[in-house]
Design goal:
The chain is α+β, with helices and mostly antiparallel strands. The chain folds into two domains: about 130 residues, Diaminopimelate Epimerase, Chain A, domain 1 (Roll); about 130 residues, Diaminopimelate Epimerase, Chain A, domain 1 (Roll), CATH 3.10.310.10. It has six helices and 18 strands. It has an 18-stranded mixed sheet that branches. Strand 7 and strand 8 form a beta hairpin. The protein is globular, with a radius of gyration of 18 Å. The chain starts with a strand and ends with a strand.
């Protein structure tokens, strides 16, 4: 059964920047094992599978090359972008996704940005295992944790950018993801960003993720409290780089960004 897919670079308006995701628009349900096999074949940090629901909206699932995940920001942005671009949803309509993390909605703005309504994922201070310090090889100013991720603050942007993590050690930690963040350094020409981050998830088959929307579900509330503002701009300092606008709204966050299509194809499954 041929399956059409689109590859979309998310959280950027330039091809080959941001975070690429494959979006498979399904006409009927397929087996989970096939989804996982396709995600492995795509070999991107996430592949999204989108299926229309009889009662309205769309069923959305996300797979890394090694596992299904409960929440993914960039592949949701990519999926919404693909639906708008291909005329599956009118440009002024809201896209509703039914997911493992509940109902998510996406709305296209007049300037081309897509805003996504996501759950906030607060972190609480925690005692970090020594392996975390060893894996990052940098002094840590703060360590917090959510159910899935560590959130680590370092004092300087130079420190954050220079980290070369030991993925073997990170993959053995109790949390499968590690967010590293700091306040943006104005002297480096990025004073329009409030904070900078990187994200590592080798336990899920993703060494360094280029731009991670779900991490901003924690970064938004964290920096909102520290900086005393609800609307922020985050820059993810991977090799590809990407910008995430985030608004902290209590139990929810709004994530905003742009996306660009770079490829269309058909999978002969």
């Amino acid at each position: 059964m041929p399956i059409k897919f689109t590859t979309v670079d998310a959280f950027t308006d330039k091809p080959f920047r941001g975070n690429p995701a494959a979006v498979c628009l399904l006409e009927k349900a397929i087996d989970q094992r096939l989804m996982q096999a396709i995600a492995l074949e795509m070999n991107l940090s996430e592949t999204a599978f989108v299926l229309p629901e009889d009662a309205g909206g769309w069923r959305l699932r996300w797979f890394t090359p090694e596992a299904e995940v409960r929440l993914c920001g960039h592949a949701t942005l990519a999926a919404a972008h693909a639906l708008y671009e291909q005329g599956q949803v009118a440009l002024n309509d809201i896209v509703f996704f039914h997911t493992a993390s509940g109902l998510l909605s996406c709305a296209r703005q007049e300037d081309g940005d897509i805003e996504m309504d996501f759950p906030a994922i607060p972190v609480a201070p925690t005692v970090a295992p020594m392996e975390l310090f060893a894996a990052l090889g940098a002094p840590l100013a703060y360590v917090g944790a959510s159910e899935s991720n560590y959130l680590v603050e370092v004092e300087h942007e130079e420190t954050l950018r220079a980290i070369q993590p030991d993925f073997r050690l990170l993959s053995k930690l109790p949390k499968w993801g590690t967010i590293v963040t700091c306040r943006a350094a104005p002297q480096q020409g990025e004073s329009d960003h409030d904070f900078v981050s990187r994200f590592f998830a080798p336990a899920k088959g993703v060494g360094e993720d280029p731009v991670t929307g779900s991490a901003h579900c924690s970064l938004g509330p964290y920096w909102s409290e520290k900086l005393g503002k609800t609307k922020l701009i985050g820059f993810q300092a991977s090799k590809r780089g990407g910008i995430v606008r985030v608004e902290s709204r209590g139990e929810r966050v709004t994530l905003g960004g742009r996306a660009v299509t770079v490829m269309h194809g058909v999978i002969e499954a």
